[in-house]
Amino acid sequence: MIGICGNEKNSDALVTVDLNYNGIEVEVESKLKKMFGKLMEKAVREVLEEEKVENAKVKVQDFGALDFVIKGRTRTALHRAQQGDDK
Amino acid sequence: MGKATRAPKKSRRTMLFSPANNPKMLAMAHLYGSDCVIFDLEDAIKYAEKDAARDLFAEALKTIDYGDTEIYARLNPLYTEFGEKDVRVLVPAGLRYMRLAMTDTPEQIKELDALLTEVEKEHGIEIGSCKIQASLETPTAVNNAYEIATASDRVVTMSFGAEDFTRTLGAERTKEGKEIFVAKSMVVMAAARAGIDAIDTVWAFLDDIEGFKKEIQDSVNMGFAGKSCVHPSQIKEIHSIFTPSKKEIEKSLIIVKAAEEADIENGGVIQVNGKMIDIPIISKAQKVVNLAKAAGVIK
Q: Cβ–Cβ of A72/B62 closer than 8 Å?
């Protein structure tokens, strides 16, 4: 069950959520990873916590996205994964 | 003062459209200076991306301080699979203004009103906090304008959409706008009777600046409170024409002050600088003062 959301465009992010995973793992790919990687991971973890998800591997490919964008893309990718929808 | 001339709580000279799935615009659109921004979940968003646009907009509402800018969602119609979900996700996230596209009947407003009441109750939001803009885009809608405007206290504005109107009428949209003049007048009159703001349609001919200026002036003369726009470059022009001039404001302030001192609410005339001033002129002066205050020109 994999869900994907977002775009490879400036100010956006492409987020992939895989629910076939034990525990939580967040992987961030970003030119700004050194400066903002932890904040991006925090944004993802907050969404997973709000949605009560305990098992998921999340990959964030960042193209200069603000926190709210990472959260939005993560939430949609998660819902798509939960629906068994790999759009 | 009648309901139609009461002080507006908020200036709505410009309503800037922006797609709801554009991260940059969600973060920046309000900085262009329009009084209102409408983030579009309907026509601008493909079916496969409706969920992504809704979630992204919800996170923006939770995070971004939009200041004094009135933020609207252009909802998907409630008869689609997306409309109700738009409301259920966005209202708890902070959305308080929503535009109901293609509003043809008062029943559509009542349906949205009932859904909003349910969602407000579920989330402990004060009942009635969420407001509606009814978008009138067909001959049926224009004929039902007053009934739509008064279908719920939540309806605070009514907008006129010329593109769908001319399409459904079978008319050609022209720059002169003779084909939409009667409809626009009907919308303004219904809004005035109901005591709400009427918002004029977008100017679609982006390269014709002189035509644009003329249409804005026509909107002001007809009684519209503001105009929808599709590009940030249109905001400045609309504001300059919709905001009363310094001379008008000064003259109006003198009339309003003289009327207050004379206490002629129930009729009669006063003299200001040698001219006879009666209730209709005082009402117009009050409207100018209200507009200037709402636009932040005077305090």
A: no
What pTM does this model have? 0.90
Digits of tens for pLDDT over chain A (87 positions)? 999 999 999 999 999 999 999 999 999 999 999 999 999 999 999 999 999 999 999 999 999 999 999 999 999 999 999 998 444
**Do B234 and B207 contact (CB within 8 A), yes or no?**
no
* Domains of chain B and any CATH numbers: 3-242 (3.20.20.60), 247-294 (no CATH)
The CA distance from A5 to the nearest CA of chain B, in Å, is 7
Q: Which residue has the tokens 């079916």?
A: B47
CATH number, domain of A52, equals: 3.30.230
Contact A68 B55 (CB under 8 A): no
- Residue found under tokens 């993802």: A44
Region B169-178 average pLDDT: 92
High-pLDDT (> 70) share of chain B, %: 96
DSSP B125: P
The number of folded domains in chain A is: 1
Subunit contact A80:B63, Cβ cutoff 8 A: no
Average pLDDT, chain B: 92
Hey, are the CB atoms on B55 and A72 less than 8 Å from each other? yes
Which positions in chain A touch B55 (Cβ < 8 Å)? 5, 72-73, 75-76, 79
Burial A17-46 (b: 16+ CB within 10 A, else e): bbbeeeeeebebebeeeeebbeebbebbee
pLDDT digits (tens, 9 = 90+) for B208-253: 999 999 999 999 999 999 999 999 999 999 999 999 888 989 999 9
Is A73 inside a domain boundary?
A: yes
Give chain B positions within 8 Å (CB) of A71. Answer: 59, 63
